[in-house]
Amino acid sequence: MAHVALIGGFGDLVVKLRGTLIKALRDAGHTVTVCVPPPSVAARPGVMAGLSALGVRMVESPLVRAGTNPLTELALRTFYDEFMAREKPDIVIAYNPKPVFYAIPAARRAGIQRSAAMITGLGYAFTSQDFKARLLSIVAMRLYRRALPLASTVIFQNSDDRTHFEHLGLLGAVRDVQTIPGSGVNLEHFPHVPITEAPSRIDFLYLGRFLRDKGVADFAESARALHALRMDTNRFRCQIAGCIDENPSSVTESDIQQWAKSGTVENLGRLEDPRPALAACSVLVLPSHGEGMPMAVLEAMATGRAIITSEAPGCRETIIDGESGILVPPGSPAALAVAMEQFLEDPALVVSMGRAAHARAVKMFDSRIVNLRVLAALGI
What we know:
It is a single chain. The protein is of the alpha/beta class and 380 residues long. The chain folds into 2 domains: 3-184 and 366-378, 3-Layer(aba) Sandwich (Rossmann fold); 202-364, Rossmann fold (3-Layer(aba) Sandwich). The protein contains 14 helices and 13 strands. The strands form 2 sheets. The protein has a 7-stranded parallel beta sheet with strand order 3-2-1-4-5-6-7, with helices on both faces. The longest helix has 18 residues, at 70-87.
């Protein structure tokens, strides 16, 4: 059996996003060491309990997700070299940009033959259009060009990102490139809670980090527009659940307070368990500007909820437009408001699209099937 090092860039979400993969590795008899930055104070108890239940050990890295200080980056590179020498993993799986940039080359320098770089989305540097993002994209492309050819396998979560990397020439001479649909969704943890009758009130829910790149500001603007245009504001409710993030595209506390003060958006805050909110909502809304494969959408589909998401990489692969949800152009609050109005005009869509979304989650995104594909890609 192998010793697998799973190296990521966000400690808070390691169990939520990689828990089923860790379990699949453990069930196959492998030892797993997780290497991530320290979880936040709020998330730490849940993360540590989750990792303990999975039977894995966590090593905390000095990774700073939004940091650009060259000395900090050099320290991270040195840390990964020391990690490989000390832990001696047989297989390295790196996901998120910085672990791919630095841990994959460190694995090669340590003589580790099997390593997988998982591209879980393009991130701020590629999806934002501001000047800082354009500068960061130049650096990111250079680092991807150096790191990816050193991996034995590169795994993309959607075909758009793979095509984009190929167009930019970032893959070099990588021998094995695969596309596997996201991390899948745990259908046992997110059971089907069907809506069987058209609701009298439509509850729209945004679930995720409060990033402009994920469309939370677009959702707030659409909610404001609906409240301004419609007289029947008692027939719908717009809620957001999540938290502010260190990502440069994060909204501010002032933004959230302003939305709440206007009475158009209700903030549920950070949810340790999103299942009650998913079961209570009518439609999950994620108008993201780009994802690897949006976990919130998959969880909502498993629950049996209709979806509004964007016609952007990763998002558009989750649903069938007009059948299990509605696709809207990214960055268009007006189009998003029109999509939301469709459910107000025909509440029966909540039932029919929710049913179709659940069926698609079972068929396409069962985490057990997805993780078997990942293990096969790793040759274990």
